[in-house]
Specification:
Layout (H helix, E strand, L loop, with lengths): L7 H14 L7 H10 L6 H14 L2 E3 L5 E3 L1 H15 L3 H10 L11 E10 L3 H13 L7 E5 L4 E2 L2 E2 L4 E7 L2 H9 L5 E11 L2 E10 L7 H7 L5 H7 L2 E11 L3 H13 L6 E3 L15 E7 L3 H8 L4 E11 L4 E2 L2
Antiparallel strand pairs: 1-2, 3-7, 3-13, 4-7, 4-14, 5-6, 8-9, 8-10, 10-12, 11-12
């Protein structure tokens, strides 16, 4: 599954070496695997063992028998150079790379989409699925699809620990990808929070630029509990995560037709599309462009956090085939 610049292999390498560098003594593969999953690198123990063997051959780690392995001086140098490279991989670069790799076509209903991964305690899975259904009915879920990975199961590069479950949902970068693939030059500008009153979007109350940041903006708002999605479900008033893009005004009709095509196949693309050169939800638009705001794919996780559930989100996480997902009833 593609990542911009850092391949998934690089992420694993950085992850393993980082975990070892943060501990003074040797660690076994079980501990390392558990730590990697916490950091959003879903991988099974056997794969970790294989990596450790090859690192040992390269002199990056040394073995302490049954006690596990520790990082060496060359290993620390390797980690340092990989991290310098990774810091250059800003959010925007990665987002564009994922969006550009989308192959999903509304007409065929097939192809690759960008997925978000929500990791939670298995005992909360039914409660989480109920929330997803409610969000879908309220048109706050971008697309009515999900995939569940149960404890002990693996899918692509995701492995789930005992007692946990993962829910994969569709990320809004999928929409960006569909627009880009249809030849629309899209400018990804901001992630933010939109205030709704009586189910009507009023204005952005928070904004964070994608340019030059290494932190996904909408994840920040979700972690800080700045949303009120459950309140919106109950009253029609609340604060919802959304993003903001711009397109040339010449592309406006094409954007509208793609979004209506997605609506016709059951996607709930809750969007506000501005007129040329006119502000959208309080955001001024560059000359010759139109602004577009679309509800974010992190909405489900933010809603679960509001309910007090301990969930981890990795958004966006990966590319996957929509055919591997199932429709939410």
């Amino acid at each position: 599954m593609g990542m911009a610049r850092n391949s998934f292999q690089d992420r694993i390498k950085i992850g393993i070496l980082k975990v070892l560098s943060e501990n003074s003594g040797p660690l076994g593969s079980t501990t390392i695997t558990r730590e990697l999953v916490k950091r959003g690198i879903f991988i099974n123990e056997r794969t970790v063992r294989n990596y450790l063997k090859s690192f040992e051959k390269e002199g990056l780690v040394s073995s302490h028998g049954k006690n596990g392995r520790s990082i060496t001086e060359p290993g620390l140098k390797e980690l340092s150079s990989l991290l310098t490279y990774q810091r250059l991989d800003f959010v925007l670069t990665r987002y564009l790379s994922l969006a550009y790799s989308v192959t999903f076509a509304p007409r065929s209903g097939r192809g690759r989409i960008v997925a978000n991964v929500t990791l939670l305690d298995k005992k909360n899975l039914d409660k989480a699925l109920d929330v997803l259904k409610r969000l879908n009915q309220a048109e706050l879920l971008l697309a009515p699809y999900l995939k569940i990975i149960d404890e002990g199961e693996s899918y692509e590069n995701i492995s789930v620990n005992k007692g946990e479950a993962a829910i994969l949902t569709i990320c809004n970068l999928t929409i960006d990808g569909i627009l880009i693939r249809s030849g629309i030059p899209l400018i990804l500008k901001y992630g933010g929070l939109v205030q709704f009153v009586n189910k009507t979007p009023i204005r952005f109350v928070e904004l964070m630029s994608y340019e030059g940041t290494t932190v996904p903006p909408l994840e920040v708002f979700s972690y800080r509990h700045m949303t009120s999605i459950m309140n919106y479900l109950n009253t029609g008033t609340g604060v919802i995560p959304a993003n903001y893009r711009e397109v040339p005004k010449e592309a406006l009709d094409k954007v509208k037709s793609i979004i209506s095509e997605l609506s016709s196949i059951g996607w709930k693309v809750l969007s506000v599309i501005g007129h040329p050169d006119e502000p959208v939800l309080g955001i001024p638009v560059s000359t010759g462009r139109c602004g577009i705001s679309i509800v974010s794919g992190v909405t489900p996780t933010a809603a679960l956090r509001e309910m007090g559930l301990d969930v981890e989100v990795f958004a966006p996480h990966c590319l996957m085939k929509i055919e591997d997902m199932k429709l939410i009833e």
